[in-house]
Amino acid sequence: MSEESSTQPEAVKPEAIKSEAVRAAPAGLPSQAQILESLKVVKDPEIPVNVVDLGLIYEVGIDDAGRVEISMTLTSVGCPVQDLIRSDAEMAVMRLDGVNHVNVEFVWSPPWSPEKMSEDGKRQMRMFGFNL
C-alpha cells in the first residue's frame, strides 16, 4: 500500500486553533485559526454542536487571492441539510476580511465518527442528553 493511499484526512482539532501547527496566512488574509473560528457559528440543525467541535472540518486552505477551500464531512452521507450547512459555512467565512471566494467540498472518506469530536463538543452533546 502506498503512503499516499494510506493517508486519510483527519478532522482539524479545535485545540489546534491556538497551536503553532496551524499555518499562518499571507498578509491581509485570515489565518486558518480565524477561518476555523468563523465556522463555529455553523451548526447542523439536528445536532446542537458547531461543525468544528463536531470534527466535521477536515481541511482548510486559503490562497494569496483570498480563495478559501474547505474540505468537510457530515455525520451521514444522506444528510438532508447538506445544502444549508454548505451555505452557512460559505457565508460565515465570507464575512472575514480578505476572503473573496469560499468553496466547500464534502468528502466521505474517512467517514465521520464521534471520536472526531473535540472534548468540548462531547461535553456539549452530553449536556443535551446524548450518551457519549
Blueprint (SSEs and pairs):
Blueprint (H helix, E strand, L loop, with lengths): L2 H4 L25 H8 L17 E6 L4 E6 L9 H13 L6 E6 L12 H9 L5
Parallel strand pairs: 2-3
Antiparallel strand pairs: 1-2
Question: Keyphrases for this structure?
Answer:
132 residues, alpha+beta, 4 helices
Please report the distance between the alpha carbons of the first and last residues.
34 Å
CATH topology: GMP Synthetase, Chain A, domain 3
CATH architecture title: 2-Layer Sandwich
Pattern of helices and strands: HHEEHEH
Write down the overall geometry. globular
Q: Give the CATH H-level superfamily.
A: Fe-S cluster assembly (FSCA)
Q: Roughly how many Å is the radius of gyration?
A: 15 Å
Round the mean pLDDT to the nearest integer and report it: 86
Total separate domains: 1
Count of distinct strands: 3
For the largest beta-sheet, the strand count, sense and barrel status come to: 3 strands, mixed
* CATH classification class: Alpha Beta
Structural class label? alpha+beta
Helix content: 25-40%
Number of helices: 4
Strand order of the largest sheet: 1-2-3
